[in-house]
């Protein structure tokens, strides 16, 4: 046999020659007439002669050469033992090093729980308007699985999947199991509906919160709860690889003593408690992921103080206006007592969320926290009402996205994953979505997503959730800062600094606001040049606070002074205006306009900011801005300059003050992310035309107003200019010269017209004297 070359330690080495009577045989899977690699052959060491390497072979170091050297007593058995993974100095434990033959988990079937008797729960007196929680919901899902050949059913398409879904029989949950979550009184109430008459059942439907009953409702409800129990137990005990429970009525809205939102008994929490009690430490830590479009208020309340149950809900919140309503579904409800940090709400601000938003939430929050929690069992409260096509949900999650999320969750708890149906009211959407989930459970890779870019609202929501959850999880950043006491808000400090600088440079001083309702909110926020009351052109600047840019510490979330910059470009505008001999009033509109003490938590800008700004603008107009008159002829030119959302007050003043626009020479506005404000009035018919002819509105290139290139924006938005910059400070810097020219043209043109008027008046007076 030819010798094989082996490269060891950068040198060419040769393995020792095998004796002619070598017993190497062809190994399974090798081509006819070949032998397996001699290094891997089982008889290799037993057949090596106890002698030095053959002549011509390179000399090997003793620690590298598995062959016994001359004078050594090392045997092949001793060598194998020395090279074993389980020897005393190995990094591998005996359990880790011992591999199980085959693929024991992959060979297990995926479970399916479905029972036709759950369809018997229906309206006692149906109307023409079909109820969203239609009994056919589970029928369509089951038939979709059969049509795809995943179920061994007479109606299933052939050929079947190699390992079809294994049926899990639903059973009736016992009262003892249900009262782990609900009160005995609630169980008795639902049971009592078996014996009620039609009139009483209709009365319950009309008086209860989004729920209906008939005489078979109780049996369907305990079958649904029992199906969830058996599904979760089968997964937790490894009777199946994983499973899906196609059950109804749903459960995640049902509370301790209340049936609501189509839900009677809370199936998933009941199943989780039974698993914990029956299996003990084998199933102590349970994660419940709820992707139903509605918040699972009942699940949250069931485990709000439980450290062993992690509840994560991704849902539409709409500031508490979306069902079930109230503040409980917001991001700051994190659990209490021992369960603090075990409740995670990801509340979408509105409907319309899609694949990119859900994937972003999973990648940034759900999976990092789930891996840190390290559950023994994962249960999905799988409502498919966030799917595209569902009218109640109004979102756009695709079947592929549901498959992707399922695939990620399968990496937890050694793959012990149970999926229990909740909501979803479009037959096609829930069928295709449930099919995508089931295929992934059975081992198919999820379909590829076409759109994975999250929306800005999703990014904002997820980042806020990360910040709120950071104190409870090592994987969440940035960590919040904690201080015993909070000082002044930075915008007040900056405004005081600006006032001092403007006074030192231009002798500008604060104007006092004496109106009680707004005096505190805008104290030291209005600063004017000394000549603001003179008969010279006046530029009134309403602006958002200066943009602050900084780099936070990646872990502590602290901002150090040397890593913070303030962009205050409008001071260049003030300098130019005063150098021209004009007057200026600089009005700063804080995002948080009240004088309440700082809480140290993130706060959005005040909702009443536009109203308060309009009230301030009206006060300033009446007391400081309104043109002076001489001989009934106005001699003051006024330019309004709006920066950011602060322009809303100016726009509202133009709209609500009759004919005020006739006293204004021009409007300049800068718009980045804030909406473009329309200036129009039903009582001032010429206002929109005037605004279009006398305005200059710079808009960021990413703004939605440029979304349709074939459609011109309405003239109500003014004369729009697309900027090349996206931030207000950059826009202010880039367009200074254009704004200066606009102001100059407006003021000097007015001055020329006034001069011509004066000449005409003088000629008229001379003619009268001659007469």
Could you give the topology of this structure?
Layout: E1 5-8, E2 11-14, H1 44-47, H2 76-82, H3 94-97, E3 111-113, H4 136-147, E4 166-168, H5 175-178, H6 184-192, H7 198-207, H8 217-236, E5 243-245, H9 267-279, E6 286-290, H10 297-302, E7 309-316, E8 343-348, H11 355-373, E9 377-382, H12 399-409, E10 417-421, H13 427-441, H14 456-469, H15 490-506, E11 509-510, H16 516-519, E12 526-528, E13 538-543, E14 547-550, E15 564-567, H17 570-579, E16 583-588, H18 609-625, E17 629-630, E18 633-634, E19 638-643, H19 647-656, E20 666-671, H20 687-693, E21 695-699, E22 720-722, H21 728-734, H22 736-770
Parallel strand pairs: 3-4, 3-5, 5-10, 6-7, 6-9, 7-8, 9-10, 13-16, 13-19, 19-20, 20-21, 21-22
Antiparallel strand pairs: 1-2, 11-12, 12-16, 14-15, 17-18
Helix pairs in contact: 4-13, 8-9, 11-12, 11-14, 12-13, 18-19
């Amino acid at each position: 046999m030819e010798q094989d070359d082996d490269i060891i330690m950068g040198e060419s080495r040769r393995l020792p020659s095998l004796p002619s009577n070598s017993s190497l045989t062809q190994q399974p899977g090798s081509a006819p007439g070949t032998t397996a690699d001699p290094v891997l052959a089982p008889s290799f060491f037993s057949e090596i002669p106890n002698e030095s390497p053959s002549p011509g072979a390179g000399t090997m170091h003793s620690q590298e050469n598995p062959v016994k050297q001359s004078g050594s007593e090392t045997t092949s058995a001793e060598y194998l033992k020395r090279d074993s993974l389980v020897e005393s100095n190995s990094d591998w434990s005996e359990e880790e090093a011992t591999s199980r033959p085959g693929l024991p988990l992959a060979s297990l079937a995926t479970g399916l729980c479905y029972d036709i008797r759950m369809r018997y729960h229906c309206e006692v007196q149906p109307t023409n308007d079909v109820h969203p929680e239609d009994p056919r919901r589970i029928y369509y899902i089951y038939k979709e699985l059969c049509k795809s050949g995943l179920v061994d059913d007479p109606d299933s398409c052939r050929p079947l999947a190699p390992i079809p879904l294994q049926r899990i029989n639903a059973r009736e949950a016992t009262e003892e199991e249900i009262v782990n979550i609900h009160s005995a009184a609630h169980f008795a109430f639902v049971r009592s509906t078996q014996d009620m008459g039609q009139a009483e059942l209709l009365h319950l439907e009309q008086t209860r919160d989004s729920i209906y009953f008939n005489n078979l409702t109780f049996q369907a409800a305990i079958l649904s709860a029992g199906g969830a129990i058996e599904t979760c137990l089968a997964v937790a005990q490894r009777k199946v690889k994983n499973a899906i429970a196609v059950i109804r009525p749903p459960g995640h809205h049902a509370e301790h003593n209340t049936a609501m939102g189509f839900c009677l008994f809370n199936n998933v929490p009941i199943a989780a408690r039974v698993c914990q009690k029956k299996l003990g430490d084998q199933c102590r830590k349970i994660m419940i992921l709820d992707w139903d479009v509605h918040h699972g208020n009942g699940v949250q309340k069931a485990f709000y103080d439980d450290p062993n149950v992690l509840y994560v809900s991704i849902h539409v919140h709409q500031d508490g206006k979306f069902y079930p309503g109230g503040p409980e579904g917001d991001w700051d409800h994190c659990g209490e007592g021992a369960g603090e940090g075990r409740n995670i709400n990801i509340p979408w601000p509105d409907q319309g969320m899609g694949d990119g938003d859900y994937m972003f939430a999973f990648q940034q929050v759900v999976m990092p926290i789930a891996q840190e929690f390290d559950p023994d069992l994962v249960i999905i409260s799988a409502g498919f009402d966030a799917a595209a096509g569902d009218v109640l949900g109004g979102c756009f999650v695709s079947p592929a996205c549901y498959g992707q999320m399922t695939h990620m969750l399968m990496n937890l708890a050694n793959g012990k994953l149970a999926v229990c149906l909740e909501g979803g009211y479009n037959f096609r959407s829930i069928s295709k979505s449930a099919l995508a989930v089931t295929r992934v459970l059975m081992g198919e890779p999820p379909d590829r997503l076409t759109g994975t870019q999250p929306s800005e609202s999703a990014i904002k929501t997820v980042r806020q959730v990360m910040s709120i959850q950071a104190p409870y999880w090592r994987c969440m950043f940035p960590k919040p800062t904690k201080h015993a006491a909070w000082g002044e808000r930075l915008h007040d400090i900056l405004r005081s600094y600006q006032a001092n600088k403007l006074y030192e440079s231009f002798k500008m001083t604060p104007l006092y606001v004496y109106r009680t309702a707004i005096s505190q909110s805008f104290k030291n926020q209005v600063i004017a040049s000394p000549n603001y009351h003179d008969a010279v052109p006046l530029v009134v600047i309403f602006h958002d606070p200066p943009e602050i840019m900084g780099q936070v510490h990646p872990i502590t979330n602290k901002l150090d002074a040397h890593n913070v910059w303030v962009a205050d470009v409008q001071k260049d505008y003030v300098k130019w205006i005063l150098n021209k001999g004009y007057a200026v009033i600089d009005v700063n509109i804080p995002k948080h306009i009240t004088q309440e003490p700082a809480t140290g938590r993130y706060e959005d800008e005040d909702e009443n900011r536009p109203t308060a700004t309009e009230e301030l603008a009206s006060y300033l107009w009446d007391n400081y801005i309104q043109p002076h008159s001489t001989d009934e002829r106005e001699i003051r030119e006024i330019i309004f300059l709006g920066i950011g959302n602060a322009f809303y007050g100016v726009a509202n003043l133009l709209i609500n003050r009759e004919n005020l626009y006739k006293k204004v020479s021009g409007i300049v506005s800068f718009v980045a992310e804030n909406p473009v404000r329309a200036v129009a009035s039903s009582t001032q018919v010429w206002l929109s035309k005037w605004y279009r002819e006398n305005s200059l509105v710079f808009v960021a290139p990413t703004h939605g107003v440029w979304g349709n290139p074939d459609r011109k924006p309405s003239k109500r938005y003014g004369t729009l200019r697309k900027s090349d910059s996206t931030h207000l400070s950059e826009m202010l810097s880039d367009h200074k010269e254009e704004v200066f020219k606009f102001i100059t043209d407006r003021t000097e043109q007015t001055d020329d017209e006034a001069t011509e008027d004066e000449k005409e008046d003088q000629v008229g007076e001379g003619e009268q004297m001659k007469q």
